UniProtKB/TrEMBL annotation:
Name of the featured protein: DALR anticodon-binding domain-containing protein 3
Domain DALR anticodon binding: 257-397
Gene3D superfamilies: HUPs, Isoleucyl-tRNA Synthetase, Domain 1
Pfam short name (any one): DALR_1
Species per Swiss-Prot/TrEMBL record: Manacus vitellinus
PANTHER family according to UniProt: DALR ANTICODON-BINDING DOMAIN-CONTAINING PROTEIN 3, DALRD3 PROTEIN
Annotated GO MF terms: arginine-tRNA ligase activity; ATP binding; tRNA binding
InterPro entries assigned to the protein according to its UniProt record, in alphabetical order: DALR_anticod-bd (IPR008909), DALRD3 (IPR037380), Rossmann-like_a/b/a_fold (IPR014729), tRNAsynth_Ia_anticodon-bd (IPR009080)
Length: 397
């Protein structure tokens, strides 16, 4: 989810918004190790070969104020045979701020080291050490600066991990007719207020207890995630801050997905209470059911369009391309959102048309049990897909 949100929210107030949206984004702590890391990078800058990196020594005094060295990025790219970088990259004036950024990247990598025995066997790296792939998630307007940081890192810290850098570039996030620039925290609070007002309109005045606040927070997080992630990350998003699609009514919104997930929870809760009252017998295991009772077109649609292809959808959404020449990669971050929205529309149509919990007559139980097993699988798909977006399923709205 950070693929779209982080570049859009790297402004004032972003840390609190990321927390509220349940985004765990790797970053350095900025703690006591930072000065040592910056000092080590300064030393590496001083040792860098002059023909590929740093012009220091007697000429340093002529550098502009705040600049601690020059790095020849273009010659480095040519010597290393790197492809995909902006051809306008040339000489970089290195500042201490850049070194602090690199120190933070180094610390984030140390916190996130992983070893993939398939794609990245430990034997591939010196000493058999673990490594991780580094993906720079960056707004298209800042891609050039991030490439500079990438190359500076390769020069000053030529370890195995810096060789695995890739860039995932996101299109810009624009706002229609903005009266003034809007900060991330303002955007979040606006959507939260709209979600509360839409919920009051649909369900009446809401109790101000912790449970309702959690529901509104989850609906707001879902609305924002779907609003930003339903579009391919390479494309521009235009936010209409007055758009009613953020409400509980819009069929293409995150709130609509959460609403249908809650309908399933309510259905199974109602069935369980009826079982406890003795109205229905307990749900038998799937192996003992007669699924030929499922004859509705909507039931086959749920099976063939959603249950069976779901593993494929996850693979398409989560699997980045294999390493190749060039630095840009793509990720199908919109796949799960679009899948959930379409599933919600087709499930809602079926659920509005079919009465699942029928009269408690034994001759109707076979069909009811088969439908409950089918919808139990649909519920599992909802939960699994929402989990990939770090959204908890709601049991009621």
């Amino acid at each position: 989810v950070g693929v779209r949100l982080v570049p859009a929210l790297t402004r004032e107030g972003s840390s609190e918004v990321l927390r509220q949206l349940r985004i765990d984004w790797p970053s350095g702590s900025g703690g006591s190790s930072f000065p040592e890391a910056v000092s080590a990078l300064k030393a590496a800058l001083g040792r860098a070969p002059c023909n590929t990196a740093c012009e220091q020594g007697p000429g340093t005094a002529t550098l502009p104020e705040g600049v601690i060295g020059k790095v020849h990025l273009k010659s480095f790219v040519e010597q290393q045979g790197l492809v995909g970088y902006d051809p306008n990259l040339d000489v970089l004036l290195v500042t201490e701020g850049m070194l602090r950024s690199l120190a933070e990247l180094q610390q984030a990598v140390q916190q996130c080291l992983v070893s993939d025995p398939v794609a990245l066997p430990a034997s591939h790296f010196p000493g058999g050490s673990s490594c991780c792939s580094i993906i720079h998630v960056v707004n298209c307007e800042e891609e050039f600066q991030q490439q500079q940081l990438d190359l500076l890192w390769r020069i000053l810290d030529p370890g195995a991990h810096t060789a695995l850098q890739k860039h995932l570039v996101c299109g810009p996030v624009k706002v229609t007719n903005p009266s003034s620039p809007i900060r991330a925290d303002q955007y979040f609070q606006l959507r939260k207020r709209q979600m509360y007002e839409a919920s009051v309109m649909k369900y009446g005045e809401l109790a101000q207890d912790e449970a309702w606040r959690e529901v509104i927070d989850t609906l707001t997080a879902a609305a924002i995630r779907f609003e930003m992630l339903s579009t391919a990350h390479r494309s521009q998003i235009t936010l209409d801050l007055e758009n009613s699609s953020i409400s509980t009514k819009g069929t293409k919104s995150g709130a609509f997905v959460m609403y249908n997930c809650a309908r399933l929870a309510t259905l199974f809760d109602s069935f369980q209470r009826a079982v406890e009252r003795g109205t229905y017998p307990p749900l038998p295991p799937a192996s003992g059911l007669n699924f030929s009772c499922l004859r509705e077109e909507g039931e086959w649609l749920l099976l063939f369009n959603y249950l069976l292809p779901f593993p494929e959808v996850l693979e398409q959404a989560a699997q980045l391309p294999t390493p190749s020449k060039g630095i840009r990669i793509t990720a199908n971050t919109e796949t799960v959102c679009k899948f959930l929205i379409q599933l919600s529309m087709d499930f809602s149509s079926y659920y509005n048309r079919v009465h699942v919990l029928g009269e408690p007559f034994p001759h109707l139980f076979d069909q009811m049990f088969a439908r409950l097993r089918l919808l139990g699988a649909v519920r599992d798909v909802f939960h699994s897909a929402l989990a990939t977006l770090h959204l908890p399923p709601l049991s009621q709205i």
